[in-house]
Design a protein that fits this description.
heterodimer, A: 271 residues, mainly alpha, B: 261 residues, alpha/beta, Rossmann fold, three-stranded antiparallel sheet, 11 strands, globular
Chain lengths: 271, 261
């Protein structure tokens, strides 16, 4: 295993796994508590459209997907807050139509099919130096935002109405959360792929919330589960020659199942 | 009601429409300093909307709302003078925070975005818990409280920044009778301490024995009167379509509402 680490691609993959595993599961605690999991799935699928546009225009596909997904995330937020449309309906509409944009573009450009496939299912061992830099920048930016707005995001997620009465910029913080989700999700599609990326956000946080009744501990446990699963999934995939994305997500699902079975929180709520 | 200068809350000809539906129509209400007012009425009467209008969460379609002499959205730093206890059903009780953390949130509005609570805020949170008789609950996760304890904790959160006006939405939902009595006694104590209190309830019987006045609301404001006044009886009868009788226990008037006919 130590021998593996001497390969440049493996070092990059490992670093990416630590960064992405950590930041996805940190933001995930807010996402799960605020009930935004489905928006996460919507954003990740929208990134297919964003990636395809990037490939078609000849710009960095992750960069174009970030811009595209930020717009989609804000649109979902706007429509479900201002309109009479429910949040999940808004996601359902954007989810499919943005993905369709990608499918349409792929159809028009035969030659790029293979390249786009790697975005759908992820290819962590193909992470380039540039990818890694971008992942690092996004992780650092989101980590700083979470640190600065930690208490405000918590208040808004816990009790949005009371937060608004207290004079907090509730709407602004909601869009901040959506923006951080879009950034983190798009950056992570290299690792597990568009199809599986929302699991990285949702599962570690869901597992952590089975195990603790403290918010700070939930964040720490979630991050530990996220990083642990991403790193070990990478090694398992390398040893067994299977897809790293699938290995990571299945490991996380396993941790969740064990957490739910052992959960002191759940046992108390049932008793 | 006593007259000590301008009312804390004043509504003038307030009408609220949601879509095509008129939720509140031509409501006039004045609440003075240290008044303890219950807004009562059947489900769907617009009680919560009225509260949200006062809080500035819902803008009236027409009419004027003044809180501390200003429209609620222009209060700025004076927002800290309002303490709000939301309906408990709007809160996820599995949320992983402790009682103390929940109460500390009461300081976040004044602290502002990005600022950290300091020792002063933490002491204020402990004082607020003390004030509602819940100091021993500080470390408990909010999911492990009884309904009565939970209400005290959310009152502590509303009190942490020393507000002058306290607004409560259906505070006794799910609280048993004994705990509710203790809860209203706490509110009376807060009134003695100088707070102005407005609460929304459909629990007419219990409320009437503790409040100074009752505002009977069912889209229109039928009456704003002392619970034992005859016009209040008439208003309740008109609203509920049934006879309402009062009993007196010592000084506090009690209302007994009969089954709907």
């Amino acid at each position: 295993m130590t021998e593996l680490l001497t390969y440049g691609y493996m070092q990059r993959a490992l670093l990416a796994a630590v960064l992405i595993g950590g930041i996805c599961s940190a933001i995930g605690v807010y996402v799960v508590l605020r009930g935004l999991s489905f928006i996460g799935a919507g954003i990740s699928h929208a990134s297919f459209g964003g990636v395809a546009i990037g490939v078609a225009l000849g710009v960095n596909p992750i960069a174009s997907a970030i811009v595209f997904c930020l717009l989609v995330a804000w649109a979902i937020g706007f429509v479900s807050r201002k309109g009479s449309i429910k949040e999940d309906t808004a996601v359902g509409i954007f989810f499919a139509s943005t993905m369709a944009v990608g499918v349409l573009i792929v159809g028009l450009m035969e030659g790029y099919r293979v390249d786009l496939m790697s975005y759908l299912f992820g290819s962590i061992i193909a992470v380039t130096r540039q990818d890694l830099l971008m992942t690092f920048a996004v992780t650092a930016a989101v980590a700083v935002l979470i640190a600065v707005f930690f208490k405000d995001l918590l208040f808004v997620v816990f009790d949005p109405e009371a937060a608004q009465v207290a004079g907090l910029p509730v709407e602004w913080l909601y869009y901040l959360l959506l923006s951080m989700m879009a950034l983190v999700i798009v950056t992570s599609i290299k690792v597990v792929g568009i199809v599986l990326v929302s699991a990285l956000v949702v599962i570690p946080a869901a597992a952590a919330l089975q195990l603790t009744e403290r918010f700070n501990s939930a964040v720490l446990i979630s991050v530990a589960v996220g990083i642990g699963s991403c790193v070990s999934g990478l090694f398992v995939a390398d040893q067994l020659g299977v897809s790293p994305g699938a290995a990571i997500v299945l490991l996380e699902a396993g941790v969740f199942a064990l957490s739910a079975l052992a959960s002191p929180v759940r046992r108390r709520n049932m008793g | 009601m006593n007259d000590q200068g301008a009312p804390v809350v004043g509504l003038h000809n307030v009408t609220v429409r949601h879509g095509g539906v008129v939720v509140l129509e031509d409501v006039n209400l004045a609440v003075n300093r240290t008044d303890f007012v219950a807004i009562i009425g059947p489900n769907g009467a617009g009680k919560t909307t009225l509260l949200k209008v006062i809080l500035g969460l819902v803008a009236p379609s027409s009419g004027e709302v003044l809180v501390f002499g200003k429209p609620p959205n222009e209060l700025g730093s004076e927002r800290a003078k309002i303490g709000y206890v939301p309906q408990i059903t709007s809160i996820d009780l599995r949320f992983p925070i402790s009682v103390f953390e929940a109460v500390l949130m009461g300081t976040y509005g004044r602290l502002g975005v990005g600022a950290r609570p300091t020792k002063a805020e933490r002491e204020a949170a402990h004082r607020a818990l003390d004030r509602v008789g819940a100091a021993d609950l500080a470390g408990k996760p909010i999911g492990r409280l009884s309904a009565g304890q939970r209400q005290r904790v959310f009152i502590a959160r509303a009190l942490v920044d020393d507000p002058e006006l306290l607004l409560l939405d259906e505070p006794t939902t799910g609280v048993d009778t004994a705990a509710a009595a203790g809860f209203y006694t706490l509110l009376r104590q807060l009134k003695q301490d100088g707070l102005t209190i407005i609460l929304v309830s459909h629990d007419i019987g219990v409320v009437a024995s503790y409040v100074d006045s009752v505002a009977c609301l069912n889209r229109f404001l039928f009456a704003h009167c002392r619970p034992d006044e005859i016009q209040c009886t008439e208003a309740l009868r008109a609203m509920y379509g049934c006879d309402v009788a009062y009993l007196h226990h010592g000084e506090a008037p009690h209302i007994v509402v009969e089954e709907h006919k």
